[in-house]
């Protein structure tokens, strides 16, 4: 090469192999700058801690019934009792303990459900978008067919066949939710494949796998994280709805009584609904905040001035 | 510098895009003849300018030459290797020698990659040493194209349009190519930046002995950088000749009208400039006109033009023209303006 100079020291200084400590410090700086993300992270970590240490945190067994203490209001109301901080339900089960243990279930279902859905969807979408043509047509026809199945009905049918276990719920949620991921992934892959940087990668001789892992996958992160956080909170909702529905169905059968309508529960035992609902709302908020932060931080265009 | 030795030889290159559609059955509705029977050669160390209106197939030609679009027919010889016969693996092996600079400097840089990663990508693909070696080569390249090496960790969105195009140029040059297709590298830039980038390309050509296929629609820029110029219209080359002849004695009515549209810096000459304003619009490439594709807009068209496709031939030494009128003496054609 004619007319080139030796690399200056200034450029070489900048190339430093990053250490784990410096990476962690960098993440902390990014978190500190985005207070929404920080709140999301704190709430999420609290949820994880609650889920892991549920037996230590919860004052009662979530299934333990104390009929003498049934229908107690939260502790700070008249007639309340600090034994049951958020009150009890009609059978005297501690609401607070149930929320603490419920965090375990909700978090497990949300995280693993989305992992399964995202994994399956990503795979199908990548293959469909990348191969195109008949493969694409076949996969997307299947995906659309899958989407047309009513969600809850399918869940109930499968649950009745496989039985109601946490593992089955996760599996079912993961499978039924995967078409959405497949569609989003495919659309993005189609868009990115047409982009100038993929074309220029081809023109410098990049292999297919390089284009896939270096160009397409990193640019999928943004939309997929947004979708994943959205689906996580949706799964928490569905799971909560499904279990309370199942519980009520069980009550009808066992006691032969008519199900209490929601308005009457809300009027007489509002804490039974408000605090679990609040927990779900906070969980959903945390995931969305965290997801937004992650999406921004992983995108060099949105990651503001470099620390 | 030029030793009259063709490094790139394009023969009867064709690229048709089939139009098909319909539910269940993929019916063939016809084809867009984006590039239709294009031939040219480029000598080592020279620049061939490729001009024409948008949609005339300039960029498709560039991509077909580099096999980014598989040509429908024809041959592209690079150093006597026929690129059209190579398979994907062989092509990948040859890619380092033939590079492309893309028009859209924003879209052609991955927003998630740092400059170091972008310029170093061709080196990493071709295993050009350790990470440290790649980085020092990246810095070398950044200096070569006039970028501050301190910026190697920055991302594309942190640069201006001209700087981004410099990144593109650096990436294209990373593997020491001998032939570079510049696909409208300056169209998206401000005029002042255009000159900078064109001059940079010229300097690099002299310094590194590069051969360019320079695609553009700005005639004055093409005149500035090219040794030879090919004028395209609706997928066909209308006229190909050296820069001076084209601007001073164009033979094809289309080239004449294009050149008459270039404003002149001298106000006295500018006042005398006679513009040939073409009527109508470029016909759809889906339904290209019969005979000479230009006859619908040509001020000189006569019966023969509507039925017979004019042969693309060497009318004067080094001047290739596809026009029936070019057989006659140049005087019967509207004289080009004094350049």
Fraction in helix of chain A: over 70%
Provide a count of the helices of chain B. Answer: 11
Most strands sheet of chain B: 8 strands, mixed
* Average pLDDT reading of chain B: 85
The quaternary organization reads as heterodimer
From the helix content, strand content and strand pairing of chain A, which structural class follows? mainly alpha
Distance between the termini of chain A: 36 Å
Distance between the termini of chain B: 26 Å
Low-confidence stretches of chain A: 1-13, 251-258
Strand order of the largest sheet of chain B: 6-7-8-3-9-10-12-11
CATH architecture of chain A: Orthogonal Bundle
Over the alpha carbons, how many angstroms does the gyration radius of chain A reach?
25 Å
Low-pLDDT ranges of chain B: 330-339
| Biggest sheet overview of chain A | none
| Helix content class of chain B | 25-40%
Compile the SSE list and pairings.
The complex is a heterodimer of chains A (307) and B (339).
Chain A: H1 9-13, H2 20-33, H3 35-52, H4 54-57, H5 95-131, H6 133-148, H7 151-162, H8 166-193, H9 196-203, H10 208-255, H11 262-268, H12 271-297
Helix pairs in contact in A: 3-5, 3-12, 5-6, 5-8, 5-10, 5-12, 6-8, 7-8, 8-10, 9-10, 10-12
Chain B: E1 6-21, E2 27-43, E3 47-51, H1 58-65, E4 73-78, E5 81-82, H2 88-94, E6 98-101, H3 115-125, H4 131-144, H5 161-173, E7 179-183, H6 191-208, E8 211-215, H7 219-225, E9 228-233, E10 236-242, H8 243-248, H9 253-260, H10 267-272, H11 303-307, E11 312-316, E12 319-322
Helix pairs in contact in B: 3-4, 3-5, 4-5, 5-6
Describe this structure in words.
The complex is a heterodimer of chains A (307) and B (339). Chain A has helices spanning 9-13, 20-33, 35-52, 54-57, 95-131, 133-148, 151-162, 166-193, 196-203, 208-255, 262-268, 271-297. In chain A, 73% of the residues lie in helices and 0% in strands. Chain A has one domain: MetI-like (MetI-like fold, Orthogonal Bundle), CATH 1.10.3720.10. Chain A has 307 residues and is mostly helical. Chain A has 12 helices and no strands. The radius of gyration of chain A is 25 Å and the shape is globular. Chain B is of the alpha/beta class. Chain B has 11 helices and 12 strands. In chain B, the strands form 2 sheets. An 8-stranded mixed β-sheet of chain B has the order 6-7-8-3-9-10-12-11, sandwiched between helices. A 4-stranded antiparallel β-sheet of chain B has the order 2-1-4-5. In chain B, a hairpin with a 2-residue loop joins strand 4 and strand 5. Chain B is globular. Mean pLDDT of chain B is 85; it is low at 330-339. The chains are: A mainly alpha (307), B alpha/beta (339). The interface between A and B is large, with 32 and 46 residues.
